[in-house]
Specification:
single chain, mainly alpha, 3 helical TM bundles of succinate and fumarate reductases, 9 helices, 2% strand, elongated
C-alpha cells in the first residue's frame, strides 16, 4: 500500500503535476512537428501522422496520455483549491487561465475526431482532417489551431516557471525561447501548405474529393443514427452539431 501521507506532501504533488505536464508537452511537440512537416510536402505530413499515431494511438500511449491529462488537471484543480491567496503575478494568471480553457476547447475535437474515428471505425486520413477542418467547417479548424496555441503557451510557461530557479537557466533560455516560438509558427505554416496541396488535389482528382465526402458523410450518418437509438444527449451531440456542413457531389453544401 502507498502511504497516503505522500499525497499530502506538496513537493510530491508538484512533481506529479510536472511529470504529467511534461508528458502532454511531449505529445504537443510531436503533434506540432507533424504539422510542420507540411512545409516539406503533404507526403511528409502523412509520414509524420503514422509516427504520431504509432506512439500516441497505441494502447500504452493512450493510457499514458489520458492518464497524464487526468492527473495534471486534477492536481491543478487541487492546487487552486489549496491556495491561501489568489494574489499572483500576471504570468502566473495567464498560465492559469490558459490551462483551464483547454478542456472546453478540446472537447469537440475529441468527440468529432478521435472518438468518432475509433467508435465507428472510420478511416482517419490527414487529407480528410484538413479538408473537413479548413474547407467543410472552417470554424472547427480555427478552434483547433487556437487550442493548440493555447496549450503550447501554457506548457511553455510551465517549463519556464519550473526552470527559472536553476542557476544555469539563463544560458539556455534563449534557445528554448527560440524553439518555443518557431515550432508553432512552422506548424501553422505547415497546416496552410498542407491544406493548399490537399485542395489542389480536388482540381486534379475529383474522385478523391468524392471519397472524402463519402467518408465524412458516413461518420455523420452513423453518429446521428446512434443519437436516435440512444434517445438521450451524449458526447455525440458535439460531433453531430447542426453547424457541420457537407458538400454534396454536385458541389452544393448540405446540412
Amino acid at each position: 500500500m502507498i502511504d497516503s501521507s505522500i499525497f499530502r506532501d506538496q513537493m510530491t504533488i508538484r512533481r506529479l503535476r510536472l511529470a504529467a505536464g511534461l508528458i502532454m508537452l511531449s505529445y504537443l511537440t510531436l503533434h506540432l512537428s507533424m504539422h510542420a512537416l507540411g512545409n516539406v510536402s503533404f507526403e511528409a505530413m502523412q509520414w509524420g501522422t503514422r509516427v504520431h499515431d504509432f506512439i500516441w494511438h497505441s494502447v500504452p500511449g493512450t493510457i499514458v496520455l489520458y492518464g497524464a491529462f487526468a492527473i495534471h488537471f486534477s492536481l491543478a484543480l487541487y492546487a487552486l483549491y489549496a491556495r491561501r491567496s489568489f494574489r499572483m503575478g500576471a504570468g502566473e494568471l495567464v498560465r492559469l487561465v490558459l490551462g483551464f480553457s483547454i478542456l472546453p476547447l478540446l472537447l469537440h475535437h475529441f468527440a468529432a475526431g478521435r472518438y468518432v474515428y475509433s467508435a465507428f471505425d472510420v478511416t482517419r486520413h490527414y487529407g480528410v482532417v484538413l479538408t473537413v477542418y479548413f474547407s467543410f467547417v472552417p470554424f472547427w479548424g480555427w478552434r483547433q489551431v487556437t487550442v493548440l496555441v493555447i496549450a503550447w503557451t501554457h506548457g511553455c510557461l510551465g517549463v519556464h516557471y519550473w526552470l527559472r530557479a536553476r542557476s544555469n537557466y539563463h544560458k539556455f533560455a534563449p534557445v528554448l525561447l527560440t524553439f518555443a516560438t518557431l515550432l508553432p509558427v512552422l506548424a501553422l505554416l505547415g497546416i496552410w501548405q498542407g491544406t493548399r496541396q490537399v485542395l489542389a488535389e480536388w482540381q486534379q482528382h475529383p474522385e478523391w474529393l468524392q471519397m472524402t465526402v463519402r467518408d465524412w458523410s458516413s461518420a455523420r450518418s452513423k453518429c446521428e443514427r446512434t443519437k436516435l437509438e440512444s434517445r438521450s444527449p451524449t458526447l455525440l451531440d458535439l460531433c453531430c452539431a447542426p453547424g457541420a456542413r457537407v458538400p454534396r457531389m454536385d458541389g452544393a453544401l448540405a446540412r
